C-alpha cells in the first residue's frame, strides 16, 4: 500500500489508485453461483503479482437500503430482502421483479447486492474526496439491473449508484462500457438526462441478450443524443476494436467534456470466454483503458461479465498493471489458484482462429452515424 512517491524500489507511482478489497467482500462475491470463486481468483492474481503495494487498499462498506434506494425502488429492495432471508424461489411476486430464470433467488442474495453496491459507492466516495485519481472495484459492474427489477444476473446496478455518487460533485459524468453485452440498465437509468453520457460497445445481433443498443438508440427527451451505442458482430479482434473505440471516444470526449468517468470492463469479450463471441485479449482492452486514463479525469473502474474465470483474472490483473504502469511478467506467479492457469501458465491470452464477422464498411457507417449524432450535443 502506498501513496504517491513512497513505493519501494524508489519508483514513483504516477497515479494515486484506490483498490476496493476486504476478505469478507471477496467471500461474499465468491458465493455468487454464476461466477464461483471469481473474486478470489482475481484478487489472488493481483496480489501474486505484487501490485497491492502500489495501491491504497480500502475496505468497502455495505450499502444501506437508503443508499440503494437512491436508484432502486423500495418495493424491489424490500422484496429482494424478504426472499433473500430464506432463498424462497416460489414467491409469486418474484417474476414481477425479474427474479427467477437468469436471476435466481439464493439465500443471502440481498447481502451480496448490498456488498457490491456499497463497494462501488466506497470507490466513488474516494474519488469525490480526492483520495485518488483512479478507484477500482473489479467485483462490481453489474450493468443490467433496472430500478425495479433484476436482469441478466444483476441484482443491484452498482454502476448507476457510483455515477449518482460522482454526480454529487461532478457536473458531467461519462459512462463507458466495453462488456460484451449492452449496458442497458445504465443507459435506461440516465436516458432522459444530459448530465450523464453513456457509451457502450457490444455485440448486437438478433436474439442476443439484452437485444438493445443499436446505433439508433440515442436517448430520450433532454437526454437525446447522450446515449452512444456501437453495435458489433462476432470475432472482432484487438486492433479493429481499438480503432473503433478511439474514433468514437475522441468524439465523445470532445463534445461532452466529462468531469469524471465510470468505465465498465467486462471480460466476456476475451478469446476463450464461453460466450464465444468477440476475440479480444487483455492487451487490446488495456489500450482502450489507456486512452481513457490519458484524459486524467477522476476514473472509477468496474468489472462485469467474464465467464472463463482464469481469463477474467488474467484480464483484470493486466488492466490493474496498466493503471499502475507496471509491466507484468508473462509467467503466472505461484499462488493459491496457480493450477487454474494451465497448460501454459502464462498471463497472455491468444486470439482463437475465428473469422471476424465485422465488415469495414459497416463499421465505418456506424462511426459516421455516431459522429453525426454527436453533432446534436449542445
Q: What's the SSE pattern?
A: EHHEHHHEHEHEEHEHEHH
Radius of gyration: 19 Å
Helical content stands at 25-40%
Helix-and-strand structural type? alpha/beta
Outline type: globular
DSSP helix count? 11
Strand order of the largest sheet: 2-1-3-8-7-4-5-6
First-residue to last-residue Cα separation: 43 Å
Characterize the biggest β-sheet. 8 strands, parallel
Mean pLDDT: 95
**Strand coverage percent:** 5-15%
Low-confidence stretches: 1-10
How are the SSEs placed, and which strands pair?
Blueprint: E1 17-20, H1 23-30, H2 38-48, E2 56-58, H3 65-68, H4 74-84, H5 109-128, E3 134-137, H6 158-167, E4 173-177, H7 184-189, E5 196-203, E6 227-232, H8 238-256, E7 260-264, H9 282-293, E8 299-302, H10 309-324, H11 360-374
Parallel strand pairs: 1-2, 1-3, 3-8, 4-5, 4-7, 5-6, 7-8
Helix pairs in contact: 1-2, 2-10, 5-6, 8-9, 8-11, 9-10
Question: Quick summary of this structure?
Answer:
With 378 residues, the chain is an alpha/beta fold. The protein is built from 11 helices and 8 strands. α1 packs across α2, α8 runs parallel beside α11 and α9 packs parallel to α10.
